[in-house]
Amino acid sequence: MLRTIIHVCICLLPIILLREAKVEDEGRYYSPIHFTEGMVDLWTKSLRGCQCPFNTTSNDCACCEKNGGCHCGSAVPTRCSQCGLQQYCGGMCNVTIQSSDIQKRSRKSFGQIKPIPLDGPGVCIFTLIPTPHQRVEIQLYRFRNIGYFNGTSCVGGYIQLIGGIDSVNETDEKRFDQFCDRDERFRPPLVLFADGGRAHLIFRITEKFRTPSDFFAFFSFTSINDKSVGFQPKGGMKLQTSNCDWLYEDANCKSGCTLASPNYPGPYPSFVNCTYTISTSSENVWIRVSFYISTPDKQCLTDNISIYQGFSDIPVEVLCGYKRQVFNFYGPKIRVEFRSGRKIPPFNFYRGFKAKLSFYEKDASVTLPITSPSVSLYKPSTSTLQSTMPYTTSLPEDFLPCEILISGNNTRSGHFDTRELDWHSLCRWTFKGHPTDVVHISLFNYRLRAPSCKSVIEVFNGYMEDSKRPMDRICSPETSQSTSPSTSQRSYLSKGNIMVIIMRRPTAPQSTDEAEFISLRYFFHDEQISGTMQPESLCDVVYYGSKSPLAGMMENPTSKYFFVVGRLICKQVFKPSANQSVELTILGMENVSKKAQCMTECGDITGCLCVPQSSLDEVDHLLIVDENGLNVGCVCGQFEKDWFPISVYSWKTLTIIYSIADYKGKDKGFTFSASYSFNQDTSCGEKFYTLHSGEITPKNISKLHFNQYFYLSCGWILHSNVDRQLDIEISSSHNRPCSSWNISICEYKADAKDYCGKLLDTYCSRNLSDKVYNLQWKINAVVIRLRSFSRKMPEFRVKWKAQVNHWNIKYGSTTPTHNSSTKPHFWSITGLLFVVFLYFYL
């Protein structure tokens, strides 16, 4: 009886809270759930006064809300519940609520969770399944004996919401935030959100309390298109190697972008460190960020937002509390870091932040819009820009008399020569980048004069104390003087974000000509954003579809300074994973020499080609090649700007090659703007079919611009372990030459390239509208391969059917026939039967 009274009181209490709660405009952070004045709850209009569904002679039952309410039946005659959940009128535990089912039965996408009070220990799990365009929202109004907070964690019980996984266990529960309190009424409600599909609301009690544990909550399957509670980041790209790191680029934010803390507008997780990198393609672009922040004032030391200009490790601003603030920055890059610590009750004020992001071209005649009285303007530090030796004075405890730390936070590339510094017998240079950086060093000039290895240069991958041996050791006497191409350069690439160089010299020189020295160039490379550096190269990188950002802007190689005289070649390789395609788009090029004897020509089935008067190596150009080195796109010298953008769409590896014929340090050559994207796409690639019949049709990919080329090499292997005869039919509505696209059929060979053995035939849409192939008996496995390079996506249909009954086979060949007639087969069989008849008759 006591349990029932407690349960009813808890259920009735939030009615007052719902009526009093005000939903903020800027931050409407939970879905408004309305009901009419005077109702008992969401589905019960009154406790009595309506006909009982189980006894039509009685009017002593509850009256239900007509839109979505259903009577609870004889078990609870004075209450109604949501249609589809009326079987749980007495309480819920271990229930699955599916959005599509609830909406069909009650025409509502929200409802109430009525848990069975737990004496403890015990657990109830409520599984909520949204549609693909919804997120799960839980509004918690009341806790009663849901454990307690001991200062560091929940003890005795908790409630938590876990999203994005099919099932949960206690190990999963430890990884997510837990909410608890002995007796708490939340005003406003504690609102939790889960994205990524199926979510689980866990109600776990591990201790026995004097009275049963209970809570009151509403659920909502909220549209992700809702501008407030359905918040989704806009324009950014989540980095695959991190849980909450994002990349925002101006090319993807032409209509504005939004960023926010995880789970916004619900409570953000404890102990997170999220980085939002915002970059522009040019220094002539402003970055404007408008913040709306909601974090507890008392936790500013642990829960805050730090904003960094460029690569500096000193924040220009740290934000926390409850405020709105607008900032304007010069490009090309800023970094926003959101950090959080441990949550302490009350839990309903940990909303985090959201921000609107926009970009503006610099123009002295245009004033940036100001929408808030709190607007700040930040410019890059002049000293940082002009500094050629970005050393820091913070030294380790075991510092040497000659100790220099070069930080990737202060500079991204540079050069130094020890002859410009004071002489010391022992010097150490430490290069330290961001956590996701690697360090590249080119040691091109050095001189060690002392005999018998008394002078030494050592290069360490990481700190000396953590390295068993150096990456390289150069002993005296030895000299290297590189004045032209990097044939004699020593290049090093770190495995982590730290590299150390040690130089030991026994005696001071008598003159500058006798000085022992080293001269080198260095740069820091962020592999999380800009691809994986290749150890044996100066500037080659690989973007892997499995771990690189799924989309982004390519980096101009000459943003770094290389010690190269002559030809410079830098490759950016894009390797899609299985079931991925990749698209490379050249948006434009600047500072290309028009004097170069080279022209660009674009055609339908040839793509964009470079046509040099002599050798292509002798002119600056940008080239796209496939995994076999075949040219699929090229731009050089004279070209029409209206031809841009130029893109290539493929399911195979593509490489963009930046080539400067005569590279010079001060004159860095041309620049280009280009983007890439990895797309989840199963319509091409290599597919394996064991079905005896089926059909293949291409995916309809919308054409975005004129010079968009589809470069396809798709393979479908039809395989069987039993003897059979295959009939294959190919048809198309296109009328295109074979050079545009074609489909080949060949016998399967496991050790052959593309698994293609003996070629049986090649289909071209211009030759015939359709073809039928009746393959020989026991050709059990064949490869059907599509090859295409065209502005138009191929349109075709491939059908196959296998005959496994030996008596019904067609004694045909691989010679194709028109699909419109089957008479040759009929007369061949008829003629054969006639000959057999004559043989026995005569």
From TrEMBL:
All copies of domain CUB, residue ranges = 244-360, 684-803
Instruction: Tell me which domain of life the UniProt entry assigns to the organism this sequence originates from.
Output: Eukaryota
| Record's keyword annotation contains Cytoplasm | no
* Protein name from the UniProt record: Uncharacterized protein LOC108735205
Q: Which GO terms describe its cellular component?
A: plasma membrane
Start and end residues of each stretch annotated as Disordered:
471-491
Q: Where are the transmembrane segments?
A: 824-841
Does this entry carry the keyword Ligase?
A: no
PANTHER family in alphabetical order: CUB DOMAIN-CONTAINING PROTEIN, CUBILIN
- Keywords of this entry: Disulfide bond, Membrane, Signal, Transmembrane, Transmembrane helix
Instruction: Give the encoding gene's name.
Output: LOC108735205
Which residue positions does the secretion signal occupy?
1-21
Check the record and name the Gene3D superfamilies matching this protein. Answer: Spermadhesin, CUB domain
Give the species. Agrilus planipennis (Emerald ash borer)
Which residue intervals are annotated with compositional bias (Low complexity) in the record?
476-491
